[in-house]
Amino acid sequence: MRGDTTGAENRTSPPQAPFTECLQTPFTSHKQTTTTSAMAVLHRRNGSSNSNSSSSSSNSSLDSLMSTSSASSTSSDGDNGRADQYIPPSIISHLEDRATSYFLSEFVLIPMREGNLPVRGCFPWVPKFMSKTQPAKVFLSAFRATSLASIATQHGKTVIGSALSAAQRHYLVAVRAMNQAIQDPTLAKSDETLAAVLLLALYETLVTSSRGSIKEYINHMKGAAMMVKLRGEQGLATQEGEAMFTTTRNHVLGFSCLPCAPEISEFTWLLRHTCAREKDIAALNIANSAIRQDIDRVFRMARDAGHDNRHPRTVQRVLTILQSARALEARYRRLNDTHVPPQWASPVAEWVASRPDADLDTCATAPGPVYGFETMSMGVIHLMTFVSHLMLTTSVLRCAAWLAGPDADWRAGDEYRDMAATAGRRVADLVALAPYFCRWNGRDHTRANFACGAEARAGDPLKRVAGQIVLWPLFAASVSDFAKDGERRFLQGRLRYLADVAGITQARTFLEMRVSSPSDDIERDRGTGYHW
Length: 532
Known about the structure:
InterPro entries: DHMBA_Reg_Transcription_Factor (IPR053175), Fun_TF (IPR021858). Residues 1-85 are annotated as: Disordered. The chain has 21 helices and four strands. By secondary structure, the chain is an all-alpha fold. It has one domain (5-525). The strands form two sheets. A two-stranded antiparallel ribbon has the order 1-2. Strands 3-4 form a two-stranded antiparallel ribbon. It starts with a helix and ends in a 7-residue tail after the last helix. The model is unreliable at 1-92 (pLDDT under 50).
Protein backbone atom coordinates (compact mmCIF):
# COMPACT_ATOMS: atom_id res chain seq x y z
CA MET A 1 0.00 0.00 0.00
CA ARG A 2 1.01 3.61 -0.31
CA GLY A 3 3.10 4.81 2.54
CA ASP A 4 3.26 8.51 1.66
CA THR A 5 1.02 11.06 3.33
CA THR A 6 -0.10 12.44 -0.01
CA GLY A 7 -1.52 9.10 -1.01
CA ALA A 8 -3.34 8.83 2.33
CA GLU A 9 -4.87 12.25 1.87
CA ASN A 10 -6.04 11.34 -1.60
CA ARG A 11 -7.90 8.34 -0.27
CA THR A 12 -9.66 10.24 2.52
CA SER A 13 -10.59 13.41 0.68
CA PRO A 14 -12.18 14.16 -2.71
CA PRO A 15 -9.68 13.89 -5.58
CA GLN A 16 -8.12 17.19 -6.56
CA ALA A 17 -8.28 16.49 -10.27
CA PRO A 18 -10.14 13.22 -10.87
CA PHE A 19 -10.65 11.72 -14.28
CA THR A 20 -14.17 13.17 -14.34
CA GLU A 21 -12.58 16.63 -14.45
CA CYS A 22 -9.66 15.73 -16.63
CA LEU A 23 -12.05 14.38 -19.26
CA GLN A 24 -13.75 17.73 -19.76
CA THR A 25 -13.30 19.28 -23.17
CA PRO A 26 -14.16 22.72 -24.55
CA PHE A 27 -15.44 21.13 -27.74
CA THR A 28 -18.43 19.39 -26.16
CA SER A 29 -20.65 22.40 -26.76
CA HIS A 30 -19.89 22.53 -30.48
CA LYS A 31 -22.11 19.84 -32.00
CA GLN A 32 -22.54 19.78 -35.73
CA THR A 33 -25.99 19.08 -37.11
CA THR A 34 -24.70 16.20 -39.22
CA THR A 35 -23.22 14.36 -36.25
CA THR A 36 -26.27 12.19 -35.60
CA SER A 37 -26.68 11.13 -39.20
CA ALA A 38 -22.99 10.32 -39.54
CA MET A 39 -22.99 8.21 -36.40
CA ALA A 40 -26.18 6.48 -37.47
CA VAL A 41 -24.55 5.49 -40.75
CA LEU A 42 -21.57 3.99 -38.93
CA HIS A 43 -23.70 2.16 -36.40
CA ARG A 44 -25.87 0.60 -39.10
CA ARG A 45 -22.76 -0.69 -40.88
CA ASN A 46 -21.20 -1.83 -37.62
CA GLY A 47 -24.26 -3.80 -36.57
CA SER A 48 -24.47 -1.94 -33.26
CA SER A 49 -27.56 0.16 -33.76
CA ASN A 50 -29.72 -2.32 -31.89
CA SER A 51 -27.65 -2.17 -28.71
CA ASN A 52 -28.22 0.84 -26.52
CA SER A 53 -25.12 0.22 -24.48
CA SER A 54 -22.92 -0.28 -27.52
CA SER A 55 -24.43 2.74 -29.19
CA SER A 56 -23.84 4.85 -26.13
CA SER A 57 -20.25 3.69 -25.92
CA SER A 58 -19.57 4.22 -29.59
CA ASN A 59 -21.42 7.53 -29.98
CA SER A 60 -18.64 9.28 -28.14
CA SER A 61 -16.04 7.58 -30.31
CA LEU A 62 -16.28 9.52 -33.51
CA ASP A 63 -18.16 12.33 -31.79
CA SER A 64 -14.85 13.93 -30.94
CA LEU A 65 -13.78 13.77 -34.56
CA MET A 66 -16.79 15.78 -35.58
CA SER A 67 -17.45 17.97 -32.55
CA THR A 68 -14.89 20.56 -33.64
CA SER A 69 -16.43 20.95 -37.08
CA SER A 70 -18.77 23.78 -36.28
CA ALA A 71 -15.99 25.60 -34.46
CA SER A 72 -13.80 25.24 -37.51
CA SER A 73 -16.38 26.94 -39.71
CA THR A 74 -15.12 30.29 -38.50
CA SER A 75 -11.45 29.49 -39.02
CA SER A 76 -9.38 31.38 -41.52
CA ASP A 77 -8.00 28.47 -43.49
CA GLY A 78 -10.30 29.22 -46.41
CA ASP A 79 -11.34 25.60 -46.84
CA ASN A 80 -15.04 25.97 -46.01
CA GLY A 81 -17.36 24.25 -48.43
CA ARG A 82 -14.66 22.69 -50.56
CA ALA A 83 -15.81 19.49 -52.18
CA ASP A 84 -12.43 18.27 -53.35
CA GLN A 85 -11.23 15.08 -51.69
CA TYR A 86 -7.54 15.62 -52.35
CA ILE A 87 -4.93 18.27 -51.68
CA PRO A 88 -2.01 18.62 -54.13
CA PRO A 89 0.97 17.26 -52.15
CA SER A 90 3.38 19.65 -53.88
CA ILE A 91 1.85 22.68 -52.14
CA ILE A 92 3.70 22.34 -48.85
CA SER A 93 5.23 25.26 -47.00
CA HIS A 94 8.78 25.27 -45.71
CA LEU A 95 7.49 24.83 -42.16
CA GLU A 96 5.39 21.83 -43.17
CA ASP A 97 8.38 20.32 -44.96
CA ARG A 98 10.50 20.67 -41.84
CA ALA A 99 7.71 19.20 -39.74
CA THR A 100 7.40 16.22 -42.07
CA SER A 101 11.10 15.39 -41.85
CA TYR A 102 11.10 15.86 -38.10
CA PHE A 103 8.06 13.62 -37.56
CA LEU A 104 9.51 10.84 -39.73
CA SER A 105 12.78 11.01 -37.79
CA GLU A 106 11.14 10.90 -34.35
CA PHE A 107 8.05 8.70 -34.61
CA VAL A 108 8.16 6.49 -37.71
CA LEU A 109 10.11 3.24 -37.39
CA ILE A 110 10.20 0.85 -40.35
CA PRO A 111 10.00 -2.88 -39.45
CA MET A 112 13.15 -4.89 -40.13
CA ARG A 113 15.16 -7.85 -38.89
CA GLU A 114 18.60 -7.93 -37.32
CA GLY A 115 19.64 -11.58 -37.53
CA ASN A 116 16.95 -13.51 -35.70
CA LEU A 117 15.68 -10.45 -33.84
CA PRO A 118 12.59 -8.76 -35.27
CA VAL A 119 12.50 -4.98 -34.93
CA ARG A 120 8.89 -3.90 -35.04
CA GLY A 121 7.77 -0.69 -36.65
CA CYS A 122 5.91 2.30 -35.31
CA PHE A 123 3.54 4.13 -37.63
CA PRO A 124 5.20 2.22 -40.52
CA TRP A 125 2.26 2.92 -42.82
CA VAL A 126 2.83 6.68 -42.90
CA PRO A 127 5.52 6.73 -45.66
CA LYS A 128 3.41 4.65 -48.05
CA PHE A 129 0.35 6.87 -47.73
CA MET A 130 2.48 10.01 -47.97
CA SER A 131 4.15 8.75 -51.15
CA LYS A 132 0.88 8.47 -53.04
CA THR A 133 0.40 10.83 -55.96
CA GLN A 134 -2.83 12.07 -54.39
CA PRO A 135 -3.00 11.31 -50.66
CA ALA A 136 -6.53 11.40 -49.30
CA LYS A 137 -7.46 14.78 -47.88
CA VAL A 138 -8.41 13.35 -44.50
CA PHE A 139 -5.06 11.60 -44.12
CA LEU A 140 -2.91 14.45 -45.41
CA SER A 141 -4.62 16.99 -43.16
CA ALA A 142 -4.26 14.71 -40.14
CA PHE A 143 -0.60 14.10 -40.95
CA ARG A 144 0.13 17.79 -41.34
CA ALA A 145 -1.63 18.57 -38.07
CA THR A 146 0.30 15.90 -36.19
CA SER A 147 3.71 16.58 -37.72
CA LEU A 148 3.35 20.31 -37.08
CA ALA A 149 2.25 19.58 -33.51
CA SER A 150 5.32 17.40 -33.05
CA ILE A 151 7.72 20.12 -34.14
CA ALA A 152 5.77 22.73 -32.17
CA THR A 153 6.16 20.80 -28.93
CA GLN A 154 9.93 20.36 -29.19
CA HIS A 155 11.73 21.56 -26.10
CA GLY A 156 13.26 25.01 -26.45
CA LYS A 157 12.54 25.64 -30.14
CA THR A 158 11.60 29.07 -31.50
CA VAL A 159 9.30 27.58 -34.13
CA ILE A 160 6.73 26.60 -31.52
CA GLY A 161 4.18 29.43 -31.98
CA SER A 162 3.72 29.41 -35.74
CA ALA A 163 3.85 25.61 -35.97
CA LEU A 164 1.19 25.15 -33.31
CA SER A 165 -1.15 27.61 -35.02
CA ALA A 166 -0.68 25.82 -38.33
CA ALA A 167 -1.22 22.46 -36.63
CA GLN A 168 -4.52 23.63 -35.17
CA ARG A 169 -5.72 24.83 -38.57
CA HIS A 170 -4.92 21.49 -40.21
CA TYR A 171 -6.54 19.67 -37.30
CA LEU A 172 -9.83 21.43 -37.95
CA VAL A 173 -9.59 20.62 -41.67
CA ALA A 174 -8.92 16.97 -40.81
CA VAL A 175 -11.93 16.83 -38.49
CA ARG A 176 -14.25 18.16 -41.19
CA ALA A 177 -12.78 15.76 -43.74
CA MET A 178 -13.29 12.91 -41.27
CA ASN A 179 -16.92 13.92 -40.84
CA GLN A 180 -17.40 13.56 -44.58
CA ALA A 181 -15.40 10.34 -44.87
CA ILE A 182 -17.33 8.36 -42.26
CA GLN A 183 -20.58 9.03 -44.09
CA ASP A 184 -19.22 7.39 -47.23
CA PRO A 185 -19.46 3.55 -47.20
CA THR A 186 -16.13 3.18 -49.00
CA LEU A 187 -14.12 5.94 -47.31
CA ALA A 188 -15.28 4.84 -43.85
CA LYS A 189 -13.45 1.53 -44.37
CA SER A 190 -10.38 2.86 -46.16
CA ASP A 191 -6.85 2.51 -44.83
CA GLU A 192 -6.22 6.23 -45.02
CA THR A 193 -9.30 7.12 -42.99
CA LEU A 194 -8.22 4.79 -40.18
CA ALA A 195 -4.67 6.13 -40.44
CA ALA A 196 -6.02 9.66 -40.04
CA VAL A 197 -7.85 8.73 -36.84
CA LEU A 198 -4.69 7.19 -35.36
CA LEU A 199 -2.68 10.30 -36.25
CA LEU A 200 -5.30 12.55 -34.66
CA ALA A 201 -5.03 10.45 -31.50
CA LEU A 202 -1.27 11.03 -31.49
CA TYR A 203 -1.92 14.74 -32.02
CA GLU A 204 -3.90 14.76 -28.80
CA THR A 205 -1.04 13.26 -26.80
CA LEU A 206 1.22 16.06 -28.04
CA VAL A 207 -1.06 19.01 -27.28
CA THR A 208 -3.61 17.67 -24.80
CA SER A 209 -2.26 19.53 -21.76
CA SER A 210 -3.19 22.82 -23.41
CA ARG A 211 -6.81 21.75 -22.87
CA GLY A 212 -6.19 19.80 -19.67
CA SER A 213 -8.04 16.75 -20.97
CA ILE A 214 -7.50 13.29 -22.38
CA LYS A 215 -11.09 12.88 -23.52
CA GLU A 216 -10.32 13.71 -27.13
CA TYR A 217 -7.55 11.10 -27.25
CA ILE A 218 -9.82 8.44 -25.72
CA ASN A 219 -12.59 9.25 -28.18
CA HIS A 220 -10.26 9.09 -31.17
CA MET A 221 -9.12 5.63 -30.08
CA LYS A 222 -12.73 4.55 -29.56
CA GLY A 223 -13.38 5.68 -33.12
CA ALA A 224 -10.36 3.75 -34.37
CA ALA A 225 -11.55 0.58 -32.60
CA MET A 226 -14.98 1.07 -34.14
CA MET A 227 -13.49 1.44 -37.62
CA VAL A 228 -11.28 -1.64 -37.20
CA LYS A 229 -14.34 -3.70 -36.35
CA LEU A 230 -16.25 -2.18 -39.25
CA ARG A 231 -13.44 -3.11 -41.64
CA GLY A 232 -13.45 -6.73 -40.44
CA GLU A 233 -11.12 -9.31 -41.91
CA GLN A 234 -10.75 -7.33 -45.14
CA GLY A 235 -9.01 -4.62 -43.16
CA LEU A 236 -6.17 -7.05 -42.42
CA ALA A 237 -5.51 -7.93 -46.05
CA THR A 238 -2.58 -5.52 -46.42
CA GLN A 239 0.56 -4.95 -44.35
CA GLU A 240 -0.66 -1.44 -43.61
CA GLY A 241 -4.02 -2.73 -42.43
CA GLU A 242 -2.37 -5.30 -40.20
CA ALA A 243 -0.03 -2.67 -38.73
CA MET A 244 -2.89 -0.26 -38.03
CA PHE A 245 -4.88 -3.05 -36.39
CA THR A 246 -1.91 -3.68 -34.09
CA THR A 247 -1.52 0.04 -33.37
CA THR A 248 -5.19 0.34 -32.46
CA ARG A 249 -5.12 -2.74 -30.26
CA ASN A 250 -1.96 -1.65 -28.43
CA HIS A 251 -3.25 1.86 -27.74
CA VAL A 252 -6.54 0.53 -26.40
CA LEU A 253 -4.60 -2.02 -24.36
CA GLY A 254 -2.64 0.90 -22.94
CA PHE A 255 -5.47 3.00 -21.59
CA SER A 256 -7.49 -0.05 -20.57
CA CYS A 257 -4.81 -0.44 -17.86
CA LEU A 258 -5.82 2.87 -16.28
CA PRO A 259 -7.82 3.00 -13.06
CA CYS A 260 -11.50 3.56 -13.81
CA ALA A 261 -10.85 3.05 -17.53
CA PRO A 262 -13.80 3.46 -19.92
CA GLU A 263 -15.39 0.39 -21.44
CA ILE A 264 -15.10 -0.01 -25.21
CA SER A 265 -17.49 -2.51 -26.74
CA GLU A 266 -15.35 -2.86 -29.88
CA PHE A 267 -12.35 -3.82 -27.75
CA THR A 268 -13.86 -7.26 -27.15
CA TRP A 269 -13.78 -7.89 -30.89
CA LEU A 270 -10.16 -6.71 -31.08
CA LEU A 271 -9.15 -9.08 -28.31
CA ARG A 272 -11.00 -12.14 -29.55
CA HIS A 273 -9.75 -11.67 -33.09
CA THR A 274 -6.16 -11.34 -31.95
CA CYS A 275 -6.26 -14.19 -29.45
CA ALA A 276 -7.18 -16.52 -32.28
CA ARG A 277 -3.90 -15.66 -34.02
CA GLU A 278 -1.40 -14.98 -31.25
CA LYS A 279 0.52 -17.89 -29.74
CA ASP A 280 3.08 -16.25 -27.48
CA ILE A 281 3.43 -13.69 -24.71
CA ALA A 282 1.23 -11.25 -26.60
CA ALA A 283 -1.67 -13.67 -26.19
CA LEU A 284 -1.04 -13.66 -22.44
CA ASN A 285 -1.33 -9.87 -22.27
CA ILE A 286 -4.41 -9.88 -24.47
CA ALA A 287 -6.10 -12.52 -22.31
CA ASN A 288 -5.40 -10.30 -19.31
CA SER A 289 -7.12 -7.36 -20.99
CA ALA A 290 -10.09 -9.57 -21.83
CA ILE A 291 -10.43 -10.43 -18.14
CA ARG A 292 -10.38 -6.76 -17.20
CA GLN A 293 -13.05 -6.03 -19.80
CA ASP A 294 -15.21 -8.83 -18.38
CA ILE A 295 -14.80 -7.43 -14.87
CA ASP A 296 -15.69 -3.91 -15.95
CA ARG A 297 -18.76 -5.17 -17.80
CA VAL A 298 -20.07 -7.31 -14.92
CA PHE A 299 -19.53 -4.59 -12.33
CA ARG A 300 -21.13 -1.95 -14.54
CA MET A 301 -24.22 -4.13 -14.85
CA ALA A 302 -24.17 -4.66 -11.08
CA ARG A 303 -24.02 -0.89 -10.52
CA ASP A 304 -26.91 -0.34 -12.88
CA ALA A 305 -28.96 -2.93 -10.98
CA GLY A 306 -28.10 -1.38 -7.60
CA HIS A 307 -25.24 -2.24 -5.31
CA ASP A 308 -27.54 -3.88 -2.76
CA ASN A 309 -28.77 -6.31 -5.41
CA ARG A 310 -26.15 -9.09 -5.37
CA HIS A 311 -27.84 -11.53 -7.72
CA PRO A 312 -26.54 -15.13 -7.48
CA ARG A 313 -25.88 -15.12 -11.20
CA THR A 314 -23.65 -12.06 -10.85
CA VAL A 315 -21.81 -13.64 -7.93
CA GLN A 316 -21.18 -16.74 -10.03
CA ARG A 317 -19.86 -14.64 -12.92
CA VAL A 318 -17.44 -12.84 -10.62
CA LEU A 319 -16.28 -16.16 -9.16
CA THR A 320 -15.66 -17.50 -12.67
CA ILE A 321 -13.68 -14.40 -13.64
CA LEU A 322 -11.68 -14.57 -10.42
CA GLN A 323 -10.79 -18.19 -11.11
CA SER A 324 -9.56 -17.27 -14.60
CA ALA A 325 -7.63 -14.30 -13.24
CA ARG A 326 -5.89 -16.42 -10.62
CA ALA A 327 -4.89 -19.02 -13.21
CA LEU A 328 -3.54 -16.34 -15.54
CA GLU A 329 -1.70 -14.63 -12.69
CA ALA A 330 0.08 -17.90 -11.93
CA ARG A 331 1.31 -17.98 -15.54
CA TYR A 332 2.56 -14.39 -15.28
CA ARG A 333 4.35 -15.20 -12.04
CA ARG A 334 6.05 -18.18 -13.64
CA LEU A 335 7.26 -15.86 -16.41
CA ASN A 336 8.21 -12.76 -14.41
CA ASP A 337 9.30 -14.16 -11.05
CA THR A 338 10.73 -17.61 -11.75
CA HIS A 339 11.88 -16.64 -15.27
CA VAL A 340 10.59 -19.63 -17.19
CA PRO A 341 11.85 -19.65 -19.89
CA PRO A 342 15.24 -18.44 -18.55
CA GLN A 343 15.85 -16.10 -21.48
CA TRP A 344 12.92 -13.98 -20.28
CA ALA A 345 14.98 -12.54 -17.41
CA SER A 346 15.61 -8.84 -17.99
CA PRO A 347 19.29 -8.03 -18.67
CA VAL A 348 20.73 -5.71 -16.01
CA ALA A 349 22.75 -2.99 -17.75
CA GLU A 350 23.84 -1.23 -14.57
CA TRP A 351 23.17 -1.08 -10.85
CA VAL A 352 22.59 2.12 -8.90
CA ALA A 353 23.54 1.77 -5.24
CA SER A 354 21.68 4.74 -3.78
CA ARG A 355 20.44 8.28 -4.45
CA PRO A 356 19.34 11.16 -2.22
CA ASP A 357 15.56 11.53 -2.17
CA ALA A 358 15.85 15.04 -3.58
CA ASP A 359 17.48 13.67 -6.74
CA LEU A 360 14.59 11.34 -7.57
CA ASP A 361 12.60 14.17 -9.18
CA THR A 362 15.16 14.65 -11.95
CA CYS A 363 17.56 11.70 -12.02
CA ALA A 364 17.65 9.34 -15.00
CA THR A 365 17.89 6.19 -12.89
CA ALA A 366 16.55 5.07 -9.52
CA PRO A 367 18.38 2.99 -6.91
CA GLY A 368 18.53 -0.66 -7.89
CA PRO A 369 18.88 -2.47 -11.21
CA VAL A 370 18.58 -0.71 -14.57
CA TYR A 371 17.41 -2.93 -17.40
CA GLY A 372 18.76 -2.82 -20.96
CA PHE A 373 17.80 -4.64 -24.16
CA GLU A 374 19.31 -5.29 -27.57
CA THR A 375 16.26 -3.93 -29.38
CA MET A 376 13.34 -1.74 -28.47
CA SER A 377 11.00 -4.57 -29.50
CA MET A 378 12.28 -6.71 -26.63
CA GLY A 379 11.96 -3.76 -24.29
CA VAL A 380 8.37 -3.16 -25.39
CA ILE A 381 7.40 -6.80 -24.84
CA HIS A 382 8.80 -6.71 -21.29
CA LEU A 383 7.22 -3.31 -20.66
CA MET A 384 3.73 -4.47 -21.64
CA THR A 385 4.08 -7.75 -19.76
CA PHE A 386 5.16 -6.03 -16.55
CA VAL A 387 2.31 -3.51 -16.65
CA SER A 388 -0.20 -6.20 -17.67
CA HIS A 389 0.82 -8.33 -14.69
CA LEU A 390 0.51 -5.28 -12.44
CA MET A 391 -3.02 -4.63 -13.67
CA LEU A 392 -3.95 -8.31 -13.35
CA THR A 393 -3.21 -8.12 -9.62
CA THR A 394 -5.75 -5.30 -9.42
CA SER A 395 -8.30 -7.47 -11.23
CA VAL A 396 -7.84 -10.25 -8.67
CA LEU A 397 -8.21 -7.79 -5.80
CA ARG A 398 -11.29 -6.15 -7.33
CA CYS A 399 -13.07 -9.48 -7.64
CA ALA A 400 -12.10 -10.57 -4.14
CA ALA A 401 -13.16 -7.23 -2.65
CA TRP A 402 -16.54 -7.29 -4.37
CA LEU A 403 -17.22 -10.86 -3.26
CA ALA A 404 -16.26 -9.99 0.32
CA GLY A 405 -19.00 -7.37 0.43
CA PRO A 406 -19.13 -3.58 0.74
CA ASP A 407 -18.36 -3.52 4.47
CA ALA A 408 -15.47 -6.00 4.49
CA ASP A 409 -11.82 -4.93 4.70
CA TRP A 410 -10.49 -5.88 1.28
CA ARG A 411 -6.92 -5.32 2.47
CA ALA A 412 -7.13 -8.25 4.90
CA GLY A 413 -6.17 -11.83 4.12
CA ASP A 414 -3.38 -13.84 2.57
CA GLU A 415 -4.43 -13.19 -1.02
CA TYR A 416 -4.21 -9.43 -0.55
CA ARG A 417 -0.72 -9.70 0.92
CA ASP A 418 0.32 -12.00 -1.92
CA MET A 419 -1.04 -9.71 -4.64
CA ALA A 420 0.41 -6.63 -2.94
CA ALA A 421 3.88 -8.19 -2.93
CA THR A 422 3.55 -9.23 -6.57
CA ALA A 423 2.34 -5.78 -7.61
CA GLY A 424 5.26 -4.24 -5.75
CA ARG A 425 7.71 -6.37 -7.74
CA ARG A 426 6.12 -5.29 -11.02
CA VAL A 427 6.32 -1.63 -10.05
CA ALA A 428 10.01 -2.19 -9.28
CA ASP A 429 10.44 -3.79 -12.72
CA LEU A 430 8.85 -0.77 -14.40
CA VAL A 431 11.10 1.56 -12.40
CA ALA A 432 14.11 -0.45 -13.60
CA LEU A 433 12.89 -0.37 -17.21
CA ALA A 434 11.93 3.32 -17.36
CA PRO A 435 15.51 4.59 -17.97
CA TYR A 436 15.86 2.42 -21.07
CA PHE A 437 12.94 4.15 -22.79
CA CYS A 438 13.59 7.61 -21.38
CA ARG A 439 17.15 7.49 -22.80
CA TRP A 440 16.48 5.52 -25.99
CA ASN A 441 17.65 7.54 -28.99
CA GLY A 442 18.05 4.85 -31.61
CA ARG A 443 21.56 3.78 -30.63
CA ASP A 444 20.68 0.21 -29.73
CA HIS A 445 23.07 -2.69 -30.17
CA THR A 446 21.20 -2.92 -33.46
CA ARG A 447 20.48 0.10 -35.59
CA ALA A 448 17.14 1.87 -35.48
CA ASN A 449 15.43 2.09 -38.84
CA PHE A 450 13.78 5.50 -38.73
CA ALA A 451 12.11 6.70 -41.90
CA CYS A 452 14.19 9.88 -41.98
CA GLY A 453 17.05 11.64 -40.26
CA ALA A 454 20.70 11.10 -39.42
CA GLU A 455 22.03 8.34 -37.19
CA ALA A 456 21.76 9.19 -33.50
CA ARG A 457 24.89 10.15 -31.60
CA ALA A 458 25.84 9.28 -28.05
CA GLY A 459 24.27 11.79 -25.69
CA ASP A 460 21.38 12.67 -28.01
CA PRO A 461 18.03 12.97 -26.19
CA LEU A 462 15.48 10.23 -26.44
CA LYS A 463 13.49 9.70 -29.61
CA ARG A 464 9.94 10.76 -28.91
CA VAL A 465 8.47 7.48 -30.10
CA ALA A 466 10.10 5.91 -27.02
CA GLY A 467 8.41 8.44 -24.76
CA GLN A 468 5.09 7.74 -26.42
CA ILE A 469 5.47 4.01 -25.80
CA VAL A 470 6.42 4.23 -22.12
CA LEU A 471 3.93 6.95 -21.15
CA TRP A 472 0.94 4.85 -20.08
CA PRO A 473 2.90 2.14 -18.23
CA LEU A 474 4.76 4.79 -16.23
CA PHE A 475 1.49 6.41 -15.25
CA ALA A 476 -0.08 3.06 -14.29
CA ALA A 477 2.90 2.28 -12.04
CA SER A 478 2.99 5.76 -10.51
CA VAL A 479 -0.64 5.57 -9.32
CA SER A 480 -0.37 2.04 -7.95
CA ASP A 481 -1.21 1.66 -4.27
CA PHE A 482 1.84 -0.59 -4.05
CA ALA A 483 4.49 1.84 -5.31
CA LYS A 484 6.93 2.92 -2.63
CA ASP A 485 7.40 6.61 -1.90
CA GLY A 486 10.74 6.82 -3.70
CA GLU A 487 9.49 4.81 -6.67
CA ARG A 488 6.46 7.05 -7.09
CA ARG A 489 8.60 10.16 -6.87
CA PHE A 490 10.98 8.81 -9.51
CA LEU A 491 8.13 7.77 -11.84
CA GLN A 492 6.49 11.17 -11.54
CA GLY A 493 9.84 12.74 -12.34
CA ARG A 494 10.07 10.65 -15.49
CA LEU A 495 6.56 11.72 -16.50
CA ARG A 496 7.63 15.32 -16.02
CA TYR A 497 10.68 14.60 -18.17
CA LEU A 498 8.45 13.21 -20.93
CA ALA A 499 6.37 16.38 -20.82
CA ASP A 500 9.22 18.89 -20.66
CA VAL A 501 11.89 17.21 -22.80
CA ALA A 502 10.11 14.69 -25.03
CA GLY A 503 7.20 17.03 -25.69
CA ILE A 504 4.60 14.38 -24.76
CA THR A 505 2.42 16.92 -23.01
CA GLN A 506 -0.23 14.37 -22.12
CA ALA A 507 2.21 13.35 -19.38
CA ARG A 508 1.61 16.71 -17.70
CA THR A 509 -2.11 16.02 -17.65
CA PHE A 510 -1.42 12.67 -16.00
CA LEU A 511 0.61 14.39 -13.30
CA GLU A 512 -2.42 16.49 -12.40
CA MET A 513 -4.65 13.45 -11.89
CA ARG A 514 -5.17 12.18 -8.35
CA VAL A 515 -6.04 8.52 -8.67
CA SER A 516 -5.05 5.35 -6.86
CA SER A 517 -5.15 1.78 -8.13
CA PRO A 518 -6.78 -0.53 -7.23
CA SER A 519 -8.40 1.40 -4.35
CA ASP A 520 -10.28 3.78 -6.66
CA ASP A 521 -11.53 0.90 -8.80
CA ILE A 522 -12.73 -0.97 -5.72
CA GLU A 523 -14.54 2.09 -4.37
CA ARG A 524 -16.23 2.52 -7.73
CA ASP A 525 -17.19 -1.17 -7.86
CA ARG A 526 -18.75 -0.82 -4.42
CA GLY A 527 -20.59 2.33 -5.39
CA THR A 528 -18.61 4.66 -3.13
CA GLY A 529 -16.17 6.09 -5.67
CA TYR A 530 -16.29 8.01 -8.94
CA HIS A 531 -15.95 6.72 -12.44
CA TRP A 532 -15.72 8.04 -15.97
